[in-house]
Amino acid sequence: MKQIATMLDDSPALLEEKIAAQQQQAGYAMDPYFYRSQRVYERELERILYRGWLYAAHVSQLPEPGDYIQFELGEDAIIICRDEAGEIHALMNICRHRGARVCQEQHGNRKTFVCPYHGWVYELDGSLKAARAMEALEGFDRADYGLKHARCCVYQGLVFINCAADAADFEPALDTIAEALRPYDLPNAKVAHSQVYQVDANWKLALENYLECYHCATAHRAYAKMHSIQDVEDRISDLTEAMLARAVAQTGVNGITLNHYQAYSASTEFGADVYHSRYALYDGFLTGSDGGQPVAPLMGQFTGYDGGAGDFQLGPLCFMLNYPDHCVLYRFTPRGITATDMEIVWFVRGDAEEGRDYDRDALTWLWHHTTLEDEFIITRNSAGVNSHFFEPGPYNPAYEHLCVDFVNWYLQALSSPG
Ligand code: FES
Ligand SMILES: [Fe+2]
Asked: Which residues have CB under 8 Å from 288's CB, separation 6+?
């Protein structure tokens, strides 16, 4: 993580003052305070990151009872594991005795979780199975000391978690885009590759970069050559309409043209953001690859290519860009005020075999290179934003309206009661 000068004069009053001032600056990039303050980061964890639905895993990563992977967030670690009955749980990796991590590896298979400190033993559903010699404490009841749970939502093969016990369910929001997501058959898809890109930048700079394509023409030459989203809507409306008109017939998928936006300010429940729209690739391109030609067998129910791609949001920090032959999931995870993990997961059909049906380098080429380009511009953005003389400029209303929406929502969330 890149070190920046600390803000010695930071205070709760300054935070409130900055939020109010930023709300008066609608349409402008954020004051650097929001990218530099530890107090802001702590508030974000409390009000946003621990209260939003976050992508944690794909079911194929947990096929057997006892399989687990860890998801780290802030200073916390959450174990996503499958119990003997097949149910998936999200368990806080904090021993209920004196707080040691009960699970050390990032993934694996276990019958129980045994705390390395004094040996308390937890079942796969988090319940406390044994607590050595604790009969010495009168009235001690193991039932009171199971691992804490985060909320868990398994939807079409995707596992989401939420640390807030009182968070609204995610399913109703996801149901609003189900018909567009279902045809990819994600429960039976396979993770062909995943990669974490560590960026020396605040998570909001990384996210804002994802939310706008103003930079695509300048930063992403390969991407911009094939994806029409890099242009303003009225210039590509003919292309989009032609793609939407043929989409159902050519893909064989009903519901694929669904256009639905319930993210950030339009989200019906906090942290349960969803959107879907289908946008066109330029003529001659069928998928997101070098040259736009197919790189894997068709996903799920797809029977052909329409020259379109499905653009999804799944929770505040997760997105998918789904082509007929592969899906690309994008997740942002904050790692402190100046560090963010951008993770990409590439999905292919469950029965596709590497070497026979797809080539990993060809499959990942476009988004790997596009993300390296993003990493380059985001770190430059971070350096400029953190410099002493930075003064925020206006967002472009035609290209950067989602950033404006995000910032409005963010300020509201930051100022909401804890
Ligand atoms: S801290 Fe886990 S058994 Fe003591
Ligand atoms: Fe980009």
From this structure: 223, 226, 227, 281, 309, 321, 323, 326, 328, 366, 367
Cβ within 8 Å of residue 286, ≥6 positions away? 292, 293, 294, 305, 307, 324, 325
Give start and end residues of each alpha helix (H) in 167-277. 171-175, 178-181, 203-211, 216-219, 221-226, 233-251
Which segments of 119-174 are extended strands (E)? Answer: 121-122, 128-130, 149-155, 158-162
Q: Are the beta carbons of 344 and 194 closer than 8 angstroms?
A: yes
Domains of the chain: 54-155 (2.102.10.10), 170-415 (3.90.380.10)
List, as one string, the DSSP characters of 316-346.
TTEEEEE-SS-EEEEEEEE-STT-EEEEEEE
- Check: CB of residue 265 under 8 Å from CB of residue 402: no
Is residue 361 exposed (0-12), middle (13-18) or buried (19+ Cβ within 10 Å)?
A: exposed
Q: Which ligand is nearest to the CA of 213?
A: 2
**For the residues 335-355, what does the mean pLDDT come to?**
96
**Tens digit of each residue's pLDDT (9 = 90 or more) over 115-173:** 999 999 999 999 999 999 999 999 999 999 999 999 999 999 999 999 999 999 999 99
Put the strands of the sheet holding 149-155 in their side by side order.
54-58, 158-162, 149-155, 88-92, 76-82, 67-73, 107-109
Token pair, residue 247, equals: 């989409």
Q: CA 146 to CA 123: how far, in whole Å?
A: 9
pLDDT of residue 229 exceeding 90, the answer is no
Q: Whose CA is nearest to atom 3 of ligand 1?
A: 118
List pLDDT tens digits, range 316-335: 999 999 999 999 999 999 99
What is the Å distance from ligand 2's center to 361 Cα? 20
What is the rounded distance in angstroms from the CA atom of residue 189 to the CA atom of residue 92? 28
Which ligand is in closest contact with the Cα of 210?
2
The model's pLDDT over 101-127, given as tens digits with 9 standing for 90+, comes to 999 999 999 999 999 999 999 999 999
Tokens of 178: 């189900």
- Which pair of structure tokens corresponds to residue 139? 């009235």
For residue 97 and ligand 1, the question of a CB distance below 6 A is answered with yes
Model pTM score = 0.95
